[in-house]
Structure formats: C-alpha cells, structure tokens
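Worked Example 4.2. Consider the chain below.
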Amino acid sequence: MTNILDRVADSLGRFMPTKPTDYLALQIARRLGNLDAFRHYLILFEHYPEDLLVNIYRRCQKAGKLTGECFMEFLSEQIQ
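Applying the procedure from the previous section yields the following structure tokens:
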C-alpha cells in the first residue's frame, strides 16, 4: 500500500517558485539537506521576516551545522 503522504506529494506535482521568498525557502531547505520539509520552510517565510530567516541560515553556516535541526534551534532562540 502506498503511503498517503507520498500520494499527496505526487499529486501536487513539481514545485515552481512564484515569489522570491518561495525560491529562498527552497534553497535553504536544499542547503540544509532538508528538502522533505520544504513546505515547512515555505510556511516559515509566510510568518517570519525574510532577513530573520536568512540570518538564521547564515548562523547555521558559520557554526558548521547545516541541518534543519540547527535552523529550528536558532529560530526558536530568536522568537522567544
């Protein structure tokens, strides 16, 4: 039996960014090796300022921890 999430993802087709923030979300997810959670990054860009999220990515890069876990850890520090 096919996983329901796989079927939904397949039905959505290939993502084509329509806004610069969509493209940024895609690139950050890709560089963090977290493409499976790409839509989560899209939602983050809808709710938080672009410069905040880009700066968090840069913090991960400087720390040498390009992971989704590091990104979310730094984000939670910033929004508390």
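The chain has five helices and no strands. The two ends are 42 Å apart (CA to CA). Compare this with Example 4.1 before moving on.
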